[in-house]
Amino acid sequence: MTAVIEPSSPSPSVPSMRRPLSGWANLAPVVRFGAAAAALLVVFSIVRIIADANDLTSSSTFAAALGATAPIFLAGLGGLFSERAGVVNIGLEGMMVLGTFGAGYFGYHWGPYAALLGGLVFGALGGLLHAVATVTFGVDHVVSGFAINILAPGITRFLASELFAGKRDGTITQSPTMKGSVSRIDVPFIAGGRIGNWHSPDPLLWFERKHWFFVSDLAGLLRGFTHDLAMPTLVAIILLPVSIYVLWHTPFGLRLRSCGEKPTAADSLAVPVYRMKYYGVVISGALAGLGGAWLVTNTRSYLENQPANRGFQGLAALVFGNYKPTGVAGGAGLFAYAQALTQRTGTQPVRALFLIAAIALAALALRSFYKRKLISGLSLVILAPLALLYYVLNETVNNQIVFITPYLVTLLVLAFASQHLRMPAADGKPWRKGMTE
Amino acid sequence: MNRKRLLYALASPAAAALVALVISSLALIVSGYSPFTAFKAMITYLDSADSVVAIVNRAAPYYVAGLAVALGFKMGLFNIGADGQYRLAALLSAAAGAQVNFWAPLHVLFVIVVAILVGGAYAAIPGVLKVTRGVNEVVATIMLNSIATGITAYLLSVYLRDKSGRSSLVSQTKELPQSAWLPSLNRALRAVGYHLPNGTVLNGYLIVAMLAGVFFYVLVFRTRFGFELRTTGVNPSAARAAGINPGRMVISTIVLSGMIAGLIGIGPLLSDVHRYSDIFPTALGFTGITVALLGRNHPAGIAIGALVIAGIERAGQNLNTVNIPPEITKILAGVLVLSAVITYEVVLRLTQAATVREAAHRAHSQLPGNAPADEAVAAK
Fold it and tell me: Does the pLDDT of residue B63 top 80, yes or no?
């Protein structure tokens, strides 16, 4: 949690931050991120041992979390492209729904890799609709996005009744199962991947099973990223550096972002603002659709309402991640990790999460007091023992409490970190050529 | 000019309806169905007292949901959370109502007050978060909807479940005593000489919905608070300059919106199912957004929007008899919303352009040395 909040801490609006930078702030971002991640892993390791919850940091939990991260991350990344171009995209959920249909249809006819393409194309169509409404016709962005969320399930249900129902094992709520499935990778010599017919050794699993302090947790984390990795997940991982590069290191990205910050200024420099916004929103739909396609390739068929709020979670991850690709990945990871824990056997890992929450809240409280923010410090001081109390009092955790955990965490993070969040300056404001701002 | 304005006002919904009809007809034609058969089956089905009553019953909670959302819209607040607010309110008011036994009108009032308070309290969370911590209310209410889903399921399964008798296996609250049921309006209709066919019940909740509409109208258009609310919605910085406290406006508006949202579930609860369970109607809050958008945030417009959506849903039930997938009504409703917001924007632009043109025209003709504008245009 702290790792995600830290990078945004140098906030120019707080005068007290103008003190000479402490040693921590002088470190390179990579070092800071690494140190924060290591500290977090130490906390997890301690809690795992105290709570006797090996699944907290097992490679299967991390692998499940990574898989669950992919669709949320793709949706959030979609939101990033749109909102960086100045168009709020609350229609991500609808575009994801369209993507699941496209993936189901393409997958049924031409296999799992065509499914990814199908999701991309159908999602992009949803994005195009949003762009037409918001950019060309100047409709309120939230309104248009919401309308797409209403429209998309209607379209897919009608199409499914026409194209899936009665075909092989297809019904109105499910496409026929696609032939074949996406390939999954185990990295050789690290996570026991095969070379030809020979199984290479799996040292990470060996370390993980020792349940040593920190070492086993680290092995679990690494193995989660190198073991049983589905191709679409790999695509999602690769899209992280790609979108950083595109948005921050190419002229296209600069133009796109300028349309989200100050479109009139961009226009005066001959940036085609309308066209850039179109690009942003269509890419946004395509990525959300790809997220939907991830779900479809995972189940090998389209299911009705398969995204189940993941588009909204992507949106939350985007705000949580301060409109930055790495932040989106972090936010999506948080949602996915909590979801993955709930699917482990027993509720012990989730119960352990409350211990972690207590520690994290206490740490944040100290930080608030250190920065002389008494009110947020005090409210955190009250929350921390509550989380601890819940951990102590409850032997098992109710499934519903588990269900709301990621939402609650996101809400808390938004409540305590929103001062550090900055959305693109012109995000959500309808813009027309020639208007005065 | 006034006639022109009326024309513009009617142009937008007419164009939206046309677009929705054309697009759903195209979808039908492409899939090999006849749109005429479809629309004929839909329209003929509506032509009965039975259908009219069913539509009104269905539309009433939609209407209240539309009012809840529209109140936020009026000042630029997007209360997506109406959905969570009404579900939580329905659960808690159902549980509270089943615990007590009052004289009937008081009992009904008690349940309604509990629902209003719960809805308002839950809506206060995003309001306070927005004002004190700057959290975007759209994201906060999306989170709170999911949290409400979890909380209601948790409370229902652990604390509020009816543990007595046969019903203990099902997740549901104890049934409300009859004193907490809203009477049907059949007797009132009979008093004015109108007899509904047997088995048709016009829900008493209609009165609650109408009162909510009147409350909305008076609050927004006839009070100082409503004036401040609309001012903030149209121009926040002008409102602030005029001494309107934006934080106070945000919190009071979203709490009021939540209080109205609390009333949504009262409809099914007091007029229909009489208990909260796993099968209690969901997503009414989202339908409220649709309805508010169709009705342009005006209580009369919202009523029309609610009736249209309820009518489309009801009419769709007859499509199976002519072997056309009823899912087409979902496309019809979705396209209707999207085209309604787009055509409204287009008409607004046309109106603005016309106004500007007219003003320029007038200014031109008033300049000294210029002939009256008509001739100047003719000379060109």
Answer: yes
Task: Compute the mean pLDDT over every residue in chain B, rounded to the nearest whole number.
Answer: 88
Q: What is the pLDDT of residues A202-240, one digit of tens each?
A: 777 777 777 777 778 888 888 888 888 888 999 999 999
Identify the band that residue A107 occupies on the pLDDT scale cut at 50, 70 and 90.
very high
Distance from CA of A420 to the nearest CA of B (A): 10
Q: Is the pLDDT of residue A76 over 80?
A: yes
| Beta-bridge mates of residue A184 | A230
Using alpha carbons, select from A148, A86, A152, A93 the residue that is nearest to residue A288. Answer: A93
Q: How large is the greatest C-alpha to C-alpha distance in chain A, in angstroms?
A: 70
> Global pTM?
0.88
Question: Which of these, A424, A118, A422, A122, lies nearest to A277 by C-alpha position?
Answer: A424
- More confident of the two residues B120 and A166: B120
Do residues B320 and B326 make contact, with C-beta atoms less than 8 angstroms apart? yes
Q: Could you say which of B136, B143, B327 has the minimum Cβ distance to residue A161?
A: B327
Q: Which H or E run includes A125? A: helix A112-131
Distance, CA of B91 to CA of A52 (rounded, Å): 37
* Contact by Cβ (8 Å): A304, A88: no
Please judge whether B325 and A137 are an interchain contact, meaning their C-beta atoms are less than 8 angstroms apart.
no
- Whether A128 contacts chain B with CB within 8 A: no
Q: Does the ipTM surpass 0.90? A: no
Question: How far is Cα A311 from Cα A76, in angstroms, rounded to an integer?
Answer: 7
- Judge contact between B119 and B295, C-beta under 8 A: no
Q: How many CB pairs under 8 A join A and B?
A: 122
Q: Do B337 and A152 touch (CB under 8 A)?
A: no
CB contact under 8 A, B154 and A408: no
Q: Which residues of B touch A316 (CB under 8 A)?
A: 139, 142-143
The token pair that represents A170 in the structure block: 């297809």
Site from A142, A335, A400 to mutate, B interface, most B CB atoms within 10 angstroms? A400
